Amino acid sequence: MRISIGFKLKRSKKRNDETIPVYVNIILNRRRVELSTRIFVSPNNWDPAKERVSGTSNKAKTINNRLDKVATNILDILISLKLKTKNLMFWISKTNSMV
After folding, report:
1. How many domains in the chain?
2. What is the pTM of this model?
3. Residue 70 belongs to domain spanning
């Protein structure tokens, strides 16, 4: 299972206060899903290469920590699903061999 998680700004959804939403891109086995993180940032503070807010202010650190938590939660969910799928497949193969 190949997983890639990245963040980008969705400039087409700019709010009146000039902030832009951060979206998470999840690529799983060559399939891409894009979801809102419900985090809004100023485009002037966004570093596209690092996919994080630049700077060392408390606000920048807080937003970057939230983005890290989003990525961690996604990985936790995907790993949990993978384990459940493996357990289910094992149970199915064991049940079929008993028949």
Report:
1. 1
2. 0.81
3. 3-98
